[in-house]
Amino acid sequence: MTDLTGLDLTRKLIAFNTISPPGDEAECARFIADLLETAGFQIAWHDWQPNRPNLIATLPATEEMARGAIVYSGHLDTVPLGQVDWSEDPFAGEIKDGRMYGRGTSDMKSGVAGCIMAGLALAQEPVRRAEVKLIFSAGEETGCEGVLALAEHPDLLGTCDALVVAEPTDNRPFIGHKGALWMSLVHKGVTAHGSMPEKGKNAIFAACASIDVLRGFDFGVEAHPVMGGPSLNVGNMSAGLNINSVPDLARVGVDIRSTVGQSNAQIKAQLGALLGDDVDIEPMTDMDHVYTDPDHPWMQQAFSVVEEVTGQRPEVGTATYFTDASVLKPAMGDPATLIIGPGAMAMAHQTDEYFETALMDPCVEVFTRLGRLHIM
After folding, report:
1. In this structure, how many other beta carbons lie within 10 angstroms of the beta carbon of residue 202?
2. Which of 374, 342, 372 is nearest to 5 (CA)?
3. Which sequence ranges form a coiled-coil region, renumbered to this chain (predicted)?
4. Domain 179-287 maps to which CATH number in 3.30.70.360, 3.40.50.150, 3.55.50.30, 3.90.550.10?
5. pTM for the whole thing?
6. What is the CB neighbour count within 10 angstroms for residue 50?
7. Averaged pLDDT, 167-191
8. Looking at the predicted structure, is the pLDDT value of residue 3 above 90?
9. Cβ–Cβ contacts within 10 Å for residue 117, how many?
């Protein structure tokens, strides 16, 4: 494996079918663990579900530790292929016109490969004054389930000073992302014959009243200068079994994206007060926002590294999606957190998913330089 490249490794990772559900990340994780253990990493496992482990690989410091660990994070599961036929084999990692095709090329096995390649390079450093840790999770695509379970085991996670999340950003460094609060609003009524609606209580009417409340909902916070303002979307609704009955149950699916200055718990409390006791709020996904001040010394250093490697000073920005960092950042001592990876943001979850192969080597170089600076 001495001549292994980032592209070679990405192709090997693509060959593992880790579509979630069911995930089955174990074989892929064992392949990674063997690589890292051979290089000197200490391997720990958290078996979240059968055949769905979280992998924690730690490269020990060689000297007295000058600072906390640097952690590289990624997930091994991918989303389903979709219902449209692919033009390329989704598990072959074929390269055409500078693009590698396959499920997970962008989201996010190219990023995982970048983490591993950096880890292998850092293992060759003779002096390390900080630990290097790689955390590869299962079940991220279904609501960060793997790391949520892992966070209940602080002895496995430990703490760190810096966290690099290799999600797809086209190698642009992001200092955070919005939070996600997905809820199902449950409205209960009383059924009756459709010709005598006065005998019942229509749950759809109650749901419509809630939607009116949501339409006018004021978060009460100013837009953040980098992350922007929070948002609310009614994404789906289900109610009624047949047209000639009064529906006694209606559900409204709500997708809220939260920002700096307001927690998901505060938003839930606001909505609960407005909707009243007759509406049951069932949580689906609850991920708080992630943000590190761009003036943080480590973040300044990270942006300088990206500029050195790419030749361009990157703009400060945040991601639109949420990541495992929503769980890992608070669980690991609130480290400075950077989201950066070679995958294409626009290609995540797409048919004929690909990433630009030219971004692989710069990603590995950025990750490696960040690690070297941290362990010096």
Report:
1. 20
2. 342
3. none
4. 3.30.70.360
5. 0.94
6. 10
7. 98
8. no
9. 25
